[in-house]
Structure formats: structure tokens, C-alpha cells
Amino acid sequence: MTTATAAPLTIKVGTADTATCTYVSVAPTTGISVDVKVGGGTGSGTDIVDYECTGPGATGETQNVQIKVELTMPTSARANQQFEIGWKGTYVTGQELQAPTTGTLTPKIFAYTTMTGITGLTSATGEGTLGTITAGQTIPLPTTAVSLKSTATSTGTATVKPGKLNFGANTATGNQPMIECAVQNDTELKTYSLVVGTATSTPTSSNTPTGTPTGTPTPTKTKTEFVTETPTSEKTTERSSETPRKGADTGAGGDAGPDGRMFLLAGSVLIMGAGAGGLLLRRRSISKG
Fold first, then answer.
1. pTM over 0.90
2. Which of 87, 118, 219, 256 could link 146 by a cystine bridge, Cβ 3.0 to 4.6 Å?
3. 260 three-class SS
4. Any domain includes 124
5. How does pLDDT run across 256-266, given as a tens digit for each residue?
């Protein structure tokens, strides 16, 4: 502003938070403070989570830590399908978590959320990677969002809030935490809404067309052929002159033995001979008498 005005100045941040300022001078001597909330929660609570962190081990020291947490809800969560919630944390200045002065802390963070409103859905959890850890110094938080995963078995709307944090692990590949941080101001935290819808079904393919064809159908050509075959079992008037194998009884073939006509001819000769002989004997008998 460069000139005096009686109208107040309204500053809007995001879609809900506003601050109203009254003109004092062109060069104000005091700054203007606008409260900017982190995250997209629907609740009116605070984004700053108070943690009591204990470790390493059961006899480790206790630290009071404050972290401003931003949760990002999924927009298409479905029942019986895994969904993801984004977790992003930033230390409040002067309330950072310090690494142990002795020992080695693996660069892991395990973040959680609490959930109510849907039966069987109580939390989501995820693992992130920390920056370089120096003994006795602030443990750096992940620079990118940590993905917290869970699965709801039914539909509905859940109320989500930041949950506990664990740092480090007992081994390089283990999940047993070395520093455990419990939430101390749960009732004061901002809440988030998670809507879980009905699971989408996978369509099944069908070989039966459902649409009506719009083009002209092409006629199918049919060709019929008649084939006449001569039966192989039909008898013919020709005789085979080959000798049957293995003595098969096939009748009088060409090589089966003497022809019967020869016997008929021989019989005729004998009859004629007998007749001639009888005639000769009769004549002799007559001449003697």
C-alpha cells in the first residue's frame, strides 16, 4: 500500500484462512503475521504434534520433540484395495530429535496414522529413509513424503490423525525401533477425512457380440460336389489267373488242376468204344448161327 485508506486490507491464504489488516502508515514499524496452516485436513486442530521420544533401548533418555505434520489423503481409495497416505514432517525450531552420542542409528523412520470410523481400519504405516545421522546432532527427517499404506475391508468415511513415530532399527535389515516417539496431544490434532468407496469390478470379456451390425452382410457361397465311387466288393465276370496263397478255397482257378472237360471227353470216347465193341460181338454171333 502506498496511500492511506480507511478500508481494511484482507489477505486470504489458501481457501479458508484469512487475515484482516488495518492501515497504519505507508512504512509500518511492525510486521504483519499471517497464520498459515500446513496440510489439507478438515479439522480445526493443530498441525504440530507433540512427541515424547525414548531411546535407544529401555534405559535411554527421553526427549520432547515437536514436528509439524502434513498428511495427504488418497482421492480414490476403494474397499479391499491397498491405498496410500502421504506423510511429511518438519521440526519446530528448538524441538528437534537428537541422535544418541554413542552407537549407530540406522537411517530409518517408521511413521503411523490413527484411523476411526470404518470397522477394522485402525492405522496406516510406512517406512522412509533419513538423511545422514551424526552422533549427538539433529536426526534429519525425510525430504520427500513417506508413503503410509493400509487396506479397508468395507466402505465408509474414516477420521485420520498423525500417529506415533519410530526411528532407527536394531539391525540394518530389522524393524525393531531404537527410538520410539509417542503422541502427547492426540485430542488437539487436526483431523483428515478418508473416503473409502466401493471396489471396482473387472469387466469380463464375452465372445457374444452385443451390438447390431450396420453393414451389409456378405452372403456365404456354398458349393456341393457329387462323387460316384465304384464299390470295391462288386463281383466281375473276369477270373483271376493267379494262384491263391496259403491254399485258400476259392474254387477252380486256372492253376487249380485238370479241367473237367477232359474227363467228359474221355468218358465219351469210352462209351463210344463200348458201343462199337458190343455191335461187333453181335455180328459175330449172328454169322455163326
1. no
2. 87
3. helix
4. yes
5. 455 566 666 66
